[in-house]
Amino acid sequence: MSVFTNKVALVLAGAQGIGKACSLLLAEQGATVYVADWAVEEAL
């Protein structure tokens, strides 16, 4: 069980770069991830 299981993360500027990598890693580790970014075309 990951330390992120049953946790919620809000990632700002998460559509690309480090923000995207963090979003994906948090999700893989069991967190519920909400991503916000202006770059709609880059959305996950």
UniProtKB/TrEMBL annotation:
Which top-level group of life is the source organism from?
Bacteria
Q: Name one Pfam family in it.
A: adh_short
InterPro entries attached here?
NAD(P)-bd_dom_sf, SDR_fam
In its UniProt entry, what is this protein called? 3-ketoacyl-(Acyl-carrier-protein) reductase
Organism, scientific name: Photobacterium damsela subsp. piscicida
